[in-house]
Each structure stands twice: as structure tokens, then as C-alpha cells.
Amino acid sequence: MKLKYSVYSMCLLSLLPNMLFASDNSAMNKYLSKIAIFEEGNGRKIKSFEDVKLKFNPFQERNKEYPIVNENEIPEGYVNKKTANKYFKQFYSHAVLTDSDTSFQDFMNEHFYLDSNATGDGIDIMKTFPVTLWAYFPWKKRFYLKMDDEYKFISKFNKFEPDALSCSDCASLCEKKCSSSHIYGAKNIYSNFKSNLMEHSEVIDAEAIDNPDNYIEFELKNRTPPSIPNGFVALGRKPETVDRYTTDSFYYSTTGDWFMTEYIEVAKKASELNYVKFSFGRINECPQDGQNWQDYEKWDNLENVIEVATNTVPQKNGEFIEMYSFRDLVKFYPFNGILRYSIFVKEGEAEGNGNLNPGVEKVIEDEPVLCYGYKAGGNLGDELSNAKDWPDKRKLSEVNEMGQDTGTIRIYDDDRPNIIIRITNTETGAQLFFPPCPSAKECVITNSSKYKALVGNKGTNQDDYKYFVGESLNPIYDCNVILENPSFKPFYTLFSINDIDVTNSTKDTNIERLLQNKDLEFINKNTRVEDYFYSDKSKDGNLTFKAENGELGKRLGTFKNMVALIENRGEFRFKTGVEYKLDVWTDDNVKWTNIDEDNKKQLINGEEKANYGATRDKDGNILFFEPDILTYAKVYHTGIKQGKIILSIPNSSDENLDEEKDIDITKAINGDIYFTLKDDTVPKYDLETVKELDENNFPSIAVKVNDFAGNTRELKLYFRVNDNNMEIRTLDKNIKK
């Protein structure tokens, strides 16, 4: 709660604490202890909450108890018993003497005040009563009851008897004889009344009443939670300086990555701890086409509680504003689109009894009747008599739901689709896989709820991967086995690599090490399919790699473009006259979206505009859409939007052996292409460029796929061919010998 000062709030602070008064030798001080009264009837102990109206009147007009006597109006001459007794009673009650006609309340307004400092030099002083005050903020403070010395009062009084007689008909002193029927008897009238009255009184010049034991102590508790001043915004980090992120206006997170929660602000009191908990609408299942994806949200993030000031900026514009650290999204978001989040902020300890902000976008200052913007809280009351405490005191461990308000995180798919080329020798059944890949047991494929829907929704993406690589992958092609075998001599040579995502300072060095067998151990560790669930392990969200440990290959796989040559080493060899079968497995980790980026439209001034709100690059290509939450999910079969397989087999005859085939995006396994090699390739091993491979008529397989986020991967695989007939002739010759 921000501190707000006004004339009334400072006055209120002059009143805020419990009213306790110690007796004193001064008669007036003693009687002053009876004066302070709250009209609400709560007595002298006041415990309430901030943002309440206090109707404060430290005294009420009760002249019989607290008489005010105008010294100028005391009769000078003779008075009867009735008049005298009135003054006697007032003087017995320690009457205050003034020189003007005033009421008790007016007198107190003139001389009585409250001071926030026991020594009398406080800055919060109140001298006018009664008043209705508004307490804007929590406070515990003492305020001292004081009076100035601009008056006199009767400290002691001795009653005196009448000294004259009066008949019933006379208004003044009578002699023994009276023209009327004088009645002789006891003296019943006072002469020189004023003089006699003052002679029998002990009149004291008042001293300023400044006893530090006479104080009121107010305690107004805090009943507002920590606030989130900028509300729930689109979170994420600024785009990296790479080819597909050309704008600084969009903030995003990427699939499987850590992200920095920039621009979350939490206002807190300087003297208190605060803890924050991020709650994400996790979506671990893939909705069917047309289903409301929000029905799949599970707000169950119990483990992420962060102390305010951890990885934060301590101040901003003089207020205590905090910006929070990081959140691991790994393994939860196989989609491209909008994720919702809430923030819960706990005052004090995370498991303490302070106020909890239950995901309220904006705490409305000084509005208890609106529960400070918390719709479920009801009227907290703004009167002392009906004020209620903040309704949510839960511990953060007890919070397990969506907040009242939510913001968005734009999840952008930055992983490229995976490609595995499989070639089978139809005579022997031997198989070759490129690039090296995990066995089915070691690889987790995200399943799509739409996969194989055309055949009764039987089977999963994972099933097809298992079918494609087999129950147990040959160790020669198992990337995890190769990673642990640095001495393994690859069955391929890498000729060309291109990927702008190699963003660390040693990117050129790393790529160079992968080419032409320059660093076999490094090649074995980093040539593989991408591991979607490994992702980026850097908490600051930067794409940095420890390439020596194989993290480069896990994160980027076979890069954006890769060209390799199969060397006919090991068990599998390409030979002329043998029939081979080509199959390709393609898959992307993103299987659905809640933003249809192809068909998104919005009405602007009554006219339908396609792709409204998109951020585009200099060529007009769509980079990002503004974070609108759509109602329905769009589900993909394999995550692949389009793809192509091209088989090119140069040969000496006129027969066309080339074949081109579009990838069916409803299937993970495509190809079923049979081919036979007619000619062998040049037997030299010192080839250095892709141009040389083409000039020497090496057969090749090219596969290119795009995912629905626009990410591409292209793999081109050349292979050496030996003359199978030559081996047969050699075998026959050996047999004859």
C-alpha cells in the first residue's frame, strides 16, 4: 500500500493508538483522563485496519462534570442559596475559569490538542474536534493528550455559609424591620458573593499538560496484499539477434526452453519479505481439432516459489518494484501459441500468515469496499465498526489454481523438425540410418491426438518411431552409444553445415571441427537428431552450448542444412545391381497450436483483415502474431506442414532413375521408394566440396521439411557405390583357384 498523506490522514495519525492515561498530581490532568471518547463506542483500545473512517471526538459537552465558569459573570453582590449552590457545585468539580462565555466543547477545542510526540514538537497535531478521519495505511503509533496554559481552574474549594438574611419578598439583604412582613430566622443569603467565592477557592494558573503517560495508542493492521502494478502482460524475452527474430517489439518464450520473466513487477513494503509464485496453465495433452484448449489447462505448479529480490532490481522510481527470475518450461509445451499464467504474491514468509494476492491484476488503492479489486472478496468495510481483514491468508503451498486474472506467454516453436533417412538392402535386410538417432527406448516422441485419425485413431507417433528404428537400434547408428565411444570411426563424412542458430562465439570453430573428419570425437558427440526434451539448459534464456559434451548436437541436431557422404564403411555398403528401399521418418515436437497462423483474421472497422497484428520482416514474411487467445486448437498429425523427398541417381544409360515425392503430412514414415544403382562412384577419398560430389556423379537423397512455425531442416545424403559384379568375379576367380 502506498503511503498517502493529507491533512486528515496526518490528523488521524495524531489519534491512532490506545488511550491510556496515568493519574497525576494536577487535578485537571486527572480529569483530563476521563475526556477522550470515541463515538463508535469502542473505548480507548482501538485495533482496526487501514482504509477506515474514524469518527473521533475526544470529548463531549458535559458541563455538569466539566464546568466552564465565566469569571466576569459571577455575581458581585447578594445571591440566594440556589444560585450559590450552583457555583459551589461547579467549584467542587474543579471548575475551569475563563474570561468569556464559552461551552465546554468550545473551550476544549481552543486549548486541548493531540501531539504525535511526547515532547510536544511532533509534526502531527490535531486541535479541532470532532472530526471524521480516513486512515490510508497501516500504522502503530502513540499520540499524546495535551492542553495549553491559557486558562485557570479551581484546584480546591472550601464551602462557606450564608452571612445575611432575606425575607421572602426581598431580593436583597433585609434589616430587622421590613415594610413587608419580614420573617426573622437563620442567615440565608450571601453578600459580596464573588469576593467570598474567590477567597474560599484555590485558583491555579494552568500549566501546559504534557505528561508522556497520557497517550492514545492506535494499531491499524495492513489488509492489502502486495500489488502487481503493471498487471498481467505478455511475458517472455526479447528476440535474439538471429535471422528470424528481427523485431524488439515482441516478447516470447520458445518450446522447451527456459525463459526470463521480464517485466513482472511486484510492489512490496521495504520492511517486509514477499514471495511470489508463478502459476501456469500447463497443457500436457493435445486437444482434438475444434476442442477448447483451455479445458486442458492444469494450474498445478506447486514447486516454483521465489523470494522477492532474487534476481531482481531493488528499486524503480522510488518504489519497491521487483522483477522475477526464471521458469522452466521444459517438457510441458508441445505446441505453438499462447500459454496463460497467473502470479500469486504472498506478504511475509511463503508459508506465513500474511496477505496473499490471489492473482489479482490490479490492487485498487484505498478501496476496501471493492476489496481492492479482488472480485471474490466482497466489501471489507470502510467504517471502524464494520472493517474486515483481507480474506485470503493462505500459504503459497496451498495455492493450486488459476488466479483471478491471467496474462499470456507466447510460445514460439524454435526447434526444427527431425529427419531420419533409412535405406534397406532388400536382399540382405541390412539397414542404414542417418543421422545417428536414439533407440525407441531412449527417444520420447510427442503424440498427436490427430495422428492416424483416418484409420480409427489406432497407433501413435511413438509407435511409428519404434517401428521405423526397430526394437533395438544397431549400435553403429545409435547416437547415445556413439557418444560414449569417442574412438568410433564415423560411417560418413560431413561436407557442409549451415545453421544461424549456432550463436556462441565459437560457432565457426565448432562447424569447422565437424567437417571432413577433422575431429572424430567431436563429430561423434554432436552429429545426431535433435533432442527436443534436452533443450536449452541456460537459466538466462541464452542459447549457449557446451559443445564438448554433445550439447550442441542435442540442441540443434543436424543443423538447418547438412550435406554428408556415406563412405561404405562397416556393415552396410552401397553396391551396383542391388535393390534398395528408401524410407524417411519426419516429425516435429510441436503437434498443435491455439493460434492458427495461416488463417487468422480479425475485423477492423467492420472489414475483415487477414493476418492482422502480425510482425513481419523486411520481405513481408510473418514472424510473429500478437498474442490473441483463440478458442479452439488446431491439431497436426506429425507437426510437419510440408516436405519433399528427392532421389537422384546419375547413370550412364538413358534410363531415368531420379524420383521426387511429396511427404504425406499425415504420416511419420514416407518414401517406399525402390531403386537399383547402375554405376559405381570414383574410388578416391580426398573429395572436399559438394561441387566435387556432383561433378563426379555421386547419387544422393535430399529431404526437406517445414514445420507449422516456419522452421525448416534440409538433409542431403550422398553415397559411394562399389561395383558388385567386380566382387562376384573376384569371388569366382578365387573359387576356381
Can you offer a commentary on this structure?
The N and C termini lie far apart (101 Å). The protein is rod-shaped. Strands 16, 17, 20, 21, 22, 25, 26, 27, 33 and 38 form a ten-stranded mixed β-sheet that branches. Strands 1, 3, 8, 9, 11 and 15 form a six-stranded mixed β-sheet that branches. Strands 30-31-43-42-39-40 form a six-stranded mixed β-sheet, with no helix packed on it. 39% of the residues are buried. It contains twelve helices and 43 strands. With 737 residues, the chain is α+β, with helices and mostly antiparallel strands.
Q: Please, how many helices?
A: 12
How many β-strands, per DSSP?
Answer: 43
Mean pLDDT: 77
Output the radius of gyration: 46 Å
Q: Largest sheet, if any?
A: 10 strands, mixed
Our measurement of the CA-to-CA distance between the termini, rounded to an integer number of angstroms, reads 101 Å
- Which structural category fits the helices and strands? alpha+beta
SSE layout:
Layout: H1 7-15, E1 17-20, H2 27-32, E2 37-38, E3 46-49, E4 52-57, E5 68-70, E6 79-80, H3 81-92, E7 96-98, H4 104-111, E8 112-115, E9 125-126, E10 131-135, E11 139-147, E12 152-157, E13 189-190, H5 193-199, E14 201-205, E15 215-221, E16 234-235, E17 253-254, E18 258-260, E19 266-267, E20 274-282, E21 298-299, E22 305-307, E23 321-322, E24 326-328, E25 335-347, E26 356-357, E27 407-412, E28 418-425, E29 431-434, H6 461-469, H7 479-483, E30 492-498, H8 507-514, H9 520-526, H10 551-556, E31 561-566, E32 579-587, E33 592-593, E34 601-604, E35 607-610, E36 614-616, E37 622-625, E38 634-635, E39 640-648, E40 659-662, E41 669-676, H11 690-695, E42 700-707, E43 712-719, H12 724-736
